[in-house]
Here is the input.
Amino acid sequence: MGHLGHLKEEYRQLVERLDANPVGLPEPKTEEARQGWQEILEILFTPEDAALAARMPVAPSKLEKIASRVGMKPSELRTRLDSLADRGIVLDLVHPETGDVRYLLAPPVVGFFEFSMMRAKDSIPKKRMAKALEAYTHGDDTFARDVFGGDTVIGRTMVHETALRDDSLPDVLDWERATSVVGDARVHAVSLCYCRHKKEHLGQRCDAPMDVCLSLNGGAEFVIRRGFGRKVAPSEAMDILVESRESGLVQIADNVQHRPTYVCNCCGCCCGQLSAINDFDLPAVNPSGFVALSDREKCNGCSRCARACPVTAIAMDGVRISAKRKNRLAPRVDADRCIGCGVCVAACRRSAMAMERRKERPRVPWNVIEKSLRMAMERGRLPHLLFDVGQNRGMAFLNKTLQAICRLPLMDRLLASEQLRSRFVKFAIKNIPDPTG
Here is the structure.
C-alpha cells in the first residue's frame, strides 16, 4: 500500500480535497490502517471518479458552476453526478419549495462511509468494504482523533425521556427530546444501521435491531431519493424510537439544535462513535444535559446499571456495612465519562438510578453551519470552509458563515480571525459586539 506519495495521482488529489473538510480522510500511521484506507478509496472511486470528486465543491453548488469548474458539459456532468449520488459519494440537495438542485462532495462521515453499508445489496462489495472500514477506523487512532479530537463532534446524546423524573420534564427543551426532534421533522426515513451491518460482515454483530437508523428532513429526502432507505410515517419513526429505547440503545442525534438530519439508535459494541469512547478514550459524543446519579440506599448491588452502560461509565465499588463481614457493592458514576443517555435507569429494577441536570450544560451548535464552522476552527481548517482552492465560496455562503462567526463567543471569534487572516472578516468581527456580553 504505502504512503500518500505512493497513491495514484487521482487518489492523492482526492485525499487532499477531503482533508479540506472539517472532517477529512487523513493518512493513518500503521500499515494495517493504511491498507484499509487505500482499499476504501479503490472500492468507492474509480480513478476517473476520484479525479472528478477531487474537484467537487464542499459547499453546495449549482450544476452549471461545477460544470464550468471541471470543464464538462452540464448534461454530461449531471449523468456522472447522478451515478456518484447513487453511491452516496456526492450529495444532491433539492430545495423543498423551489426544486433548486445543488451538489456537493460528501464527507467521509456522516457521508460515504455510512452510505456504503446502508443497503443490503448494491454494487459495493460489502464484506471487503467492512474489512477496509474496520482496518482504517480501528487499525490505529488517526481517523478517530480527526473526527472526535475537537470540542465539537458530529453527534449528541439524547437522554431517554422515560429516564427523567417528572420534576425534570418542564426544564427539558424541545431539541433535547428525541420525540420532539422526530415529531417536528417534515420527512422521515429509516435505513439499516451502518455500524451493525458492517459488524455483521465481520461476524461481530450484536443482537440489537438493525433497521433503526432514522434520517430526518433534508437527510431523509436524500436517503429516499437515492434508495438508501425507505420513507416512513411519523408514527413508525416514533415506534422505532420507543422500540430502540426499550432495547437499551443510545439515541444519538445530529449535534445541532435546529433541523437535525438524523437520529441513530446505537449500541456500545458496534457503534463507531461509542467505540471511539471505549477503544480510544475520546469524547466522541456530545453528552446530553443530564448525568446519571445513584441512590445507594435503594441499590442492592446487582450491577445491572454497570453492565448496561454503553461507555463503561459506571463501576461497582465495595462498600463497608456495619456488623457485616462482607462488603456490599454500590455503583460509582464517572460523570466526565457519562454521556447522559439514561440506559442505566431503564436497566435498574429498584429505581436506584436517576438522571439529574449537569451543572454545566454542554454546548450544542445552533445549526449545521455553526457546527461545521466550529469543527473547522478546532481542526485548523477554517480557511478551507470559506475559500475553495483559492476560489470565493460566493456571497450567500460567506454571509451565512460570517453571521455564524459573529454569534460565537469572543475567544472563538478571535481564533477564527487568526485562522482566516482576512481583512474583511477581521473588520466584521471587530465591529460586531460580543453576544455573550
User: Anything to note?
Assistant: The chain has four domains: 4-139, 150-286, 291-357, 368-431. The longest strand covers residues 314-319. The first helix runs from residue 9 to 18.
